[in-house]
Amino acid sequence: MDWIIEHQLLLLIPLVSAVVGWLTNYLAVKMMFYPIKFIGIKALYLGWQGLIPQKRRKMAEISVDLVLGKLLSVQELAARLEPDKVSQAIERRLKQVLRRIINDVMQESAPTVWATLPAQIKKLIYSRVEADIPNVVDKMVTDFQHNIIEILDIKELVVEYLSEHPLLINEIFLTAGNKEFPFIIRSGFYFGFLLGLPTMVCWYFFQAWWILPLGGLLVGYLTNWIALKIIFEPKDPIKVGPFVIQGMFLKRQNEVADVYSRLIEQKLMNSENIIKAVLHGSGSDQLLELVELHVNDAIDRHVSIAQPYFGLGIGAKNYFKMRELATQRLFDSSEQYLLYMHEYANGALNIGNDLRDKMQALSATEFEGVLRPAYQQDEWKLILTGAILGGIAGVLQLFYIFLPA
Length: 405
Hints:
By secondary structure, this protein is mostly helical. The protein has one domain (2-402). It contains 25 helices and 4 strands. It has helices spanning 2-33, 51-54, 56-71, 74-79, 83-109, 111-116, 119-131, 133-146, 148-151, 154-164, 166-176, 180-205, 211-232, 248-251, 253-268, 271-280, 284-302, 309-313, 315-332, 334-338, 342-349, 351-360, 364-368, 373-376, 379-402; strands spanning 39-41, 46-48, 238-240, 243-245.
């Protein structure tokens, strides 16, 4: 009877190792993504933050350098915008905004002149300005395309947005690796069971106190290490008889490229985020200069319609103030009318399809750089954590299962 109980307990070793392997791999995956913010005492280096949220700025920089920066040309993207279609998209809302701006600017810079101006002349000014919208928009879009490098910094857009939205970079990784990460967790159970068999044999013959803790430590370490290796290696396909061996992630390059590019297009490189980066990023001063150039030109052409009323009372000082106010108000109101071009711009830029096709054409080494390099240097932390947890499980197994027996 004792012999049967002893052997039943012995069979627990690979089963416990399987559970340990599953648990350590599960925790390894969770620790890659969570918690979003550091939990613990930073000054004492006690605590944890998910590797990917922690490294999000570096990952964003790598994404730009390895993928977006090389595969997407900002000049090419800007050239896809057709000025006449941009004008059609925003014209109705821009007319409303312009009427308000004209009223506000004139009341502030030349209230007396504007108050005495006949309604017929005001109406004429409105209609002439509105009729000139396609011409002005055409010139501004063309100049924007020619000066896009100074106005839009793609790296700044991607890095700042992902730094401010750690949940998004988690979503990108989890969605792109939606088959690899569950495999890591499942494989821990299988590898844990197999690795527990040598431990069981050793314990059967020697029963040294350190065998179970060491076995647990090796299980925790190796299950994490093997799973990561299988996902990313070998980089290039190796044919063994009828089988083709390649890293799981790399083997799915076409599928991952499609998922990744769609997320980038929908959540990151969409027209809404691009317009915000243009209006509020480091190149916004250059854009303001461009707006000022065309607004001043339009005012100079249209203000003469109101003569001789302007000549009688506005004066040079108020005239320049009027131009400056008009430029600033139009720039500050940009998002109110530019949001109407989002649908057109997203279709015209076609970032998702373009990025997908170019990512699918990357070499295996280049493609690996999409998701792995930024946290690769910290993978040892996950593996070490697995080893420690495995060792603890071995100690618990020793004291609560075998020693009482």
